Hints:
This protein is of the alpha/beta class. Helices cover about 35% and strands about 25% of the residues.
Amino acid sequence: MSVTDPVLADATKVVSGAPVAELRELRKTYFKPDGSVMVEALRGVDISIEHGEYVAVMGSSGSGKSTLMNVLGCLDQPTAGVYLLDGRDISVMSDEELSRYRGEKIGFVFQAFNLIPELSIHENVATPLFYQGVSKVERLERAAAILERVGLGGRIHHRPRELSGGQQQRAAIARALVTRPVVLMADEPTGNLDSTTGRQILELFEELHASGMTIIMVTHDDSIAGRCRRVIRLKDGVIEFDRRN
Length: 245
């Protein structure tokens, strides 16, 4: 896969010098109904992720890694601090604007695939483009092209139940990429797969990274993190270490 590939051209083209994601003194506190603090999930986190990085986010249960990914993915708002996504401060956006911006900038890959069982994978992959107002013809053309890129060109009319777990995850990755996002966020993407299939999915992520895609992946597995180019480990809501492999 090449950075000149039209399927990923928008995603891998750096328009400005701004990082893909920049967190400054970011905090996330959860409160009890009476207003008292229940937990400080993130306690002053500073992270800058540049275009083209391949980052693993790690940490034990309660470390803050899931909260961090929810904030990075614009699924949750920080309590304090600044989050710039591709150079824009998300805190000043309305809910509608943030939802649209998130759909344009971020592709999500989940452990559970989250494909719609009644639809073919062609239709599944095309669905995010419907919400962006893309015409039906272009939706289906782009979905078919990205399915071809992830090795499912011959299976586009199959429904999820007719595919193996690895094929379903490839379809889920295609769905995440079809909008040409600036960053791909993956939450334990091999967690429901056997070791051989999981390795094939990781090889696909490495191909995407080689093409210029920015990837942020949550994993508890040191061997998976070792395949990434950077590892951020959280502990008790702060960064325990941030190193490049």
